[in-house]
Amino acid sequence: MNEKKNLSLNENTAFNKRKIKDKAAEYVFKLGGFFIILSIILIIFFIGKEALPLIKKYSLISKDNEKIEDIELSKTVEFFGDEYNNVLSIIQSNGEIVFYDINFKKLISKAKLNLIDNEEITSVVSKENGKKYIFGTSTGRVFIGTILYKTSYTDELDRITEPKITFSESYQISDSPVKHIDFISNDEAQTFVAIDLRKRIRVLKIASSNEEDELFSSNQDENAVAKLYDITSDLGNSIPTDIGIYYNGEIIFVSSNKGRIHYWDIANEIDYLDSRRIINAPITKIEMLNGRQAIVAGGEDGSLSVLFYSQNNIVKVRPLIGHSNKIVKLYKANLKKMITSIDESGNVLIHSTTSSKELLSFKINDGFLKTAFATKDRALLTLDKNKINRFNFDIKHPETTFETIFSKVWYEGFDRPEYIWQSSSGSDEFEPKLSLIPLIFGTLKGAFYAIIFAIPIAILAAICVSQFMHPKLKGVIKPIIEVMAALPSVVLGFLAGLWLAPKIDKLLLPIACFPILLIILTIYMPKIWERVKHFVNFKKEGMNYLIIGAPLIIIVFILSLFIGNSLESIFFNSDFNAWMYESFQIQYDQRNALIIGIAMGFAVIPIIFTISEDALSNVPEHLISGSLALGATKWQTALKIVFPSASPGIFSAVMIGIGRAVGETMIVLMAAGNTPIMDFSIFNGFRTLSANIAVEIPEAPVGGTLYRTLFLSSFILFCFTFIINSIAEVIRIRLKKKYAEL
Amino acid sequence: MKKNGSFYIWLTGCMMALSVLLVSGLIGLVMYYGFATFWQKDVALVQLKNNSYIIGEIKKKEINFNNDLTVQLKTGNRDFYGVDFRWIKDSEIQSISYDKEILHIERDEWGSFYGYPKSFEHKDKKITYNKNNKNEFYNLINSSLKDKSSIAKKINVINKKIGEINFKLSELEKEKRVLSRVNLNENKITKLDEKKLKLLNSYKIEEKKLFENIQILNSTKLVVSDIEGATKLLTLVNIIRFNLPNELTLRGKISLYLSKIWEFLSDKPRESNTEGGVFPAIFGTILMVLIMSIAVLPLGVIAAVYLNEYAKQGKTVALIRICVNNLAGVPSIVFGVFGLGFFIYGIGGSIDTLFYQDNLPSPTYGTGGILWASLTLALLTVPVVIVATEESLNAVSKGIRDGSLALGATKWETLRNIIIPTSLPGILTGLILAISRATGEVAPLMITGVVKLAPSMPLDGYFPYLHLERKFMHLGFHIYDVGFQSPNSEAALPMVFSTALLLILIVIVLNSSAILIRNRLKLKHKG
User: Fold this and answer.
1) Which domain holds residue B68?
2) How many structural domains compose chain A?
3) pTM of the entire structure?
């Protein structure tokens, strides 16, 4: 008895243990499975999240102010910040430059300009990313101050910045106080342009003496040719309001109180070119964007316009909307294509000049004396009577909006709005052109040609294998074609790019002859078969296509090589490609859509083949037998019964094929030439979204605009293929149900 | 004709035949070029009509754009001529002969050498070549090459020792950095410095040994000249292998062929990957696939078991199933981008800031590496495993399940003892398919850690032996890199074909085995 009880007790505990194990397993699988599936699906969200900041709205990060007590600020002409916004250089009208550290709240040093008695600084601008200050004085002199920040670190790793400023010799540009000033220096000359208090426009060109001159002349300073021009008369009765110099130093722009911009060619002597009306109100400010290729003009009515200079003409590219008061200050950004505008009442707007999108707006306090824009585009500073206010922001992706990615944009240096992908260049002044349209176009173009190549071969072959072939033979043929699917795309791409492309370059016409001859062959095939079939005896249906068909196809291929070559040498002077170019201006790229069509077709054929073959051979047997019993031929049955009922399956096969072709990377990377052009010609190359990602993402700085744009393109790829595959899958599942019901 | 549709039937038949031809043609092409790489062709001595001579292997004949028949010769001697190949008009050729004296040397740089021997100097012995002492001459070179291999072994040992010393030194440096940051005591640091001094001393000794050995190799000199009489001095270091191509018998050629294939499979690449072997790439591929399998198998199986056995079958599960299925069709580059953003910059970056602060700003895990590449591929292939596993779980008949449950087994026991064992072949098929897909995939690897030339393997003799953060080489990427990024692409082409062949063979073997297992399985279930 006792023993038995013990046993059952043991059994009980054992049973409990088993039960616990069972429960544990259940939880592990449920939890694990759920999380695995969830995390797989979360991939899409991660990719989307990385792309999201591209279209994010920006706002001020922070606002702070510092009281400054020991410096008289009311005499400030201008002030500037260094790249970290730690050191301010405050330029006073008496010629004193105060370097002030905001972080440590202390004066670092003072520098004194060499001014004549009673002379005052009347205007200062900062050039070359804050490395140079151009000064204009009340006696009409101009000179350059070059500033150098020496940075060192303390033991506590605090940054200590020591500014040093050196001055150039001065030039007399006018006899009255200089109000506006612009400056550019290049290999040939240093050019100052100024407007003085009496509204006269002066241009001063100082030809740089190059090295050769230095060798021959002992004291080159005396040889430096300074030429002074006065161009006020060209303006007629308009009054100049602001000036700017084009990037090459050969064109100057002057805005007027009549809403016009006048421009001169100053390459050699000074030639007045023309003027262009921009707005119906006086232009108060103009600012050259970084790179000095585009101009932003601000008017008394608060309007802002982006202007390009192209083909000796000023064109208004796009307006920037937002102000309703007179524009008093414009600041270009130094690293990005942005413009910061301040109006009379202290409203600050930051616009992207590529897309005209308003990026950020805020209001600065009333009663500001002066403003300054930080060299690294991360802050705006204002100066009150006794304090400095700092408005911090970080606009990471000003160049992208939904429009710049998906519609035509008029970029600097272009004649019209265009779709362009050109992501990077060496300099900060480059305007990134991130339209995904050329890439989407390339993707669809590649997929289109691949599908065109693959569909006839794959579907017809599937019909043959499923309907007209002995099951045993089918068991051999199907895996052979399916092996194609397993071929790594890098191998296909390499063969296409390095083997096929040069071959087709030479044999374009013969290859073009092949499909025509192949169709002619199939027309005669039944007749040939009639003759031959008495001599051979194939036990398995479908064998004849392989044994008779395959060799004939090879013969036809060789024949087409021969015919194509003779055609080429007889009619096209042995060079069909050159003939095409001369007659039709059709450019033949060695790596083109034809190559991709064939190579990617290779990758797609087995997919379409397998899925359509499955759909075709799963058509219920009784339908086929019924049709045959009613006297229909095998072909009639295939065409009228089997094909229609399997057509959803074939459709879904094509969809999946398209999905594969759209996402294929290595083949297009290696054989499509990768030029992001939009030309549907079969003989041109293209660049796809996927290849673009592979090419550009290793070089894209993490978190930058390009990086996020590439994430956006993978998001698009993901969604596109996912939707296509889902549709195909749903169709397939429905078909399965339908077959089951039949 | 319309009624019986014989034309249309033949059309389908021809397309079927065409696709079979395309597949076999492609594989045949790769095989032809891939296997031809290692075959030593006869080397022609071409006499031109202007009485000059050229030595080279005849590669192909083609009609060029001027409609002239031209011959492509692989002339080698890149150090003399700047290029490996030369095109000559057929009409310029006076005669072609196959001189038995022609010597072919595979070198460690500048590609192949074709020409004539002049003299050989080895251990104070110097022979000047003439036709009478041919045998003696080449025997001497052969024996010195044997010496070379023994010296090379010695050098290998020394290099290994130097590697160990370097490793210890870097460990010491790390320790020192940590100590000096914590500022514990001077004593320890001086001890470390002493250790370092000792290590540096032994380093110097080993280095000296190394130089001595290299000196021996360098003291053996072979002087050769090309057909125009320009001479070149080669030391033992330079010579990989030599032969007299026109004197080789068929047997000699076959054994040379086999030894070259062995070199291809087991050696490191030379000459910016265009010569030598692909062993590091094979190794990298296998290791990556292994790590991937370790990750993908449990993930896939657990998810499939959940979907098939535990989840409530309904619309949600059907939807999830479609999603998982479709994930297999999402472009691989998208997974690569995910891997880059999530694994490398996300997780890798955090690992670096948490555990590898000392090395920052140079990243340890925050850059591409074998672990991230494998995990990315695991994500890419997990749908394959899920689908295959579900299929085979489904195939386990209801009778068996119910029988097990009826006998009192719990669900877990049924699963462990009945269902999973029966569906094991199906799971295996899924895994093999996943491996096959991962082997051929390149695009996501390019951005998650593959490099053209990895300085060190991800698996080696230094602790912790498996270096998951290291970059690696991969067969597929090797094809892309050598074919498209190599400066001398024409000379690199044979190598690319061989690598492609190897890759195709691996993938086909994997796939066929998966198909075989699946077919067996189907038969078994039918039975």
Assistant:
1) 44-114
2) 2
3) 0.88
